[in-house]
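Tutorial, part two.
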Amino acid sequence: MLRTHTCNDLREHHIPARVTLCGWVAAIRDHGGVTFIDLRDHYGVTQVVLHGIDPPPRESAVQVSGEVRARGAETVNDKLETGRVELHADTLNILGATKNALPFEIADSEKVREDVRLKYRFLDLRNQTMHDRIVLRSKVISYLRAQMETLGFLEVSTPILTASSPEGARDYIVPSRRHSGKFYALPQAPQQFKQLLMVSGFDKYFQIAPCFRDEDARQDRLPGEFYQLDLEMAFAEQSDVFTVAETVLTNLFKHFTDKPVSSFRRIPFAEAMVAYGTDKPDLRNPLLIRDLTDFFSDVDFAAFRGKPVRGIAAPTAGQSRSFFEGMLKFATDVVGMKGLGYLTLSDGELKGPIVKFLTPEKQAELLQIFSVKDGETVFFICDKLPDCNKFAGQIRTSLGERLDLITRDRYEFCFIVDFPMFEIDEETGKWDFTHNPFSMPQGEPSEDVLAYQYDIVCNGYEITSGAVRNHDPEIMKKVFAIAGYGEDELAAKFGALYTAFQYGAPPHAGMAAGIERLIMLIANDENIRNVVAFPLNGNAQDPLTGAPGEITEQQLREVHIKLR
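Running the prediction step on this input gives:
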């Protein structure tokens, strides 16, 4: 063995044992003839004292041997678990020398440009905060597995090489060497396979599933690949999935954090879009949006005439004029609104540019709608749908942040339910699936039917999506017909499911929770790439390995591809 202990093992009871440690030289302090180094490994840090031994370059991998001694009273470091002892080394072997200048200081790597951090990710991950996030990721996944097994779920792996199918995002495609001109696709999700498992007679399935989607990155979304806790239940309804989800997620967050975890409210999609301006509401923000369309229907104000209007009351007492100018600039320059109206109650009187359009009776009605108190302001948002709701949601979020109204020391969960089954595609002008094409409609299929689809949202992030599945071939034909798929096309694109459902498919339901988003919330980090060991950058590239890269002409020929 190269070591007798790790760098977090040594305590006072080890004095005066002779031990051997291995690790990286994290810091060097030369005190004239005596050199102190901080030796770091996966487990922790130990101070090593070198007498007459030249220290190697920082971040070299070394082996040191010597005697464990007590630190002097003035040098005890209670911030370290090993801070009351030190190793007086008489032997040092360099196992792997640092031969180049470090591209950044390890302790400050989080302040470095992301492209540099990703190029030298193996150094970035030596930063203790980054290292701890990857350890946390492993513990979270292990805990989730244990939770699912406790609840009677069976882990089953599903294929990575599969067939391309229209599931919402772009596929990553893989050319076939043996079958000229044909392609596999990497799975966007194990959707069809987990449903086939239910038809196969398995009762409760789960998987920590890799998913691949060729879509652009966002702050809370990884490009390329991500993992999800995927589950499906046979002979189950929506409430059964909700019970499992609430149990597992509540236990998870209580196990890994000290923050309060809310109960899971159920909010219909239509209500969420009006009250919060989004189907991913941050319930830590106490501000609510109200529909003022009817209120303004008899007000002679041309800017609001015949259009949806939303209002938000916010406590703005003590805010200067620059606050309101900043909100207006945010609305016009960032959100893209034409303007932002507002009225402030000051000394019992409404004041603002549009007050002249409101009769005393309408002013009193407005105050009653919002229960406005002195020093509060009502902001008005007006535009066509769905922009009106979206804009109001962005104004609500901005007000919550600028007025410091968001309670950040808690987790607020909710189920968003009753999604519309269909929506008009802005590009084609045709009906398309809003959410998941495999969902069960809540009644006879039609353009305005709701679906048994649901998301779980936490602190403004969608962390879980799921549905009661459509297991009836006749209903499936009607649903897909509305989206423009004939029975032949349905059978061709979703042949496995369509065929399986002819052989006694059970009612089933499930969901999938994004692993990275869960960990990001638990770690209180706003950058999802920080909870992945080797992520792609925002442009779906890997600066470390150079992916995606070119391949040889021979490789192209083997898979029957010619570039153009």
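The chain has a mean pLDDT of 94. In part three we will examine how such features are distributed along the chain.
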